[in-house]
Amino acid sequence: MQPVVSVWVRDPRIRKNDFWHAYIDYEICLHTDSVCFTKKVSSVRRRFSEFVWLRQKLQENSMLMVQLPELPPKNPFFSLNNAQQITDRMKGLQKFLEQALQSPLLLSDSLLHLFLQSQLSVSKMQACAAGRTHYSVAQAVKHCGLRRFHSEEDLKKDLSMSCDSDCDSSECRDPEPRIKALALNKAASTALLDLKGTSQEENFSCTSEST
Fold this sequence. Notes:
Blueprint: E1 5-16, E2 22-32, E3 41-47, H1 48-61, H2 83-100, H3 104-107, H4 110-117, H5 122-129, H6 137-142, H7 152-164, H8 170-173, H9 176-198
Antiparallel strand pairs: 1-2, 2-3
């Protein structure tokens, strides 16, 4: 069967560098069963300038053997407050990725994989692809997205985002058991701390659940 590679560009968010400068980044969700990818489900955020960089690098690395798809044109009047402009750009970015992922030659480019499945910056992607980092491309992809949950709210938010990404796991269908488990662990930790405060002869350690 033909491998499935599905990609979505969505959820535009305004980011502020400082009081005067802001930009928009977009979530890139990828689901695949292709052996070309280390990770079968991933989600990263990228901004338009990074898409421009990626296209330029893919063109250079392919030595003009592939006609790369076009990105949505730069608009000198692009506004962060114009919903239609943002939507049109987002659709254009998704179309670019969909077409790029149809090329076997481009799929062999490490930069494409780092762009889609790691949170590395442009400079670190280049260094990693060139072998100038202590981690490999596969390691950068594998460790992308690993983080600790510090509250029930964080867990609920993460599960909700995973379900939005068409996740079909049992945790997406029914996240309550995992949330309840975290709540029980939190309650047990609180009880241990209370005992520690009332008894000078016993020592208890409390660890928070990580995911």
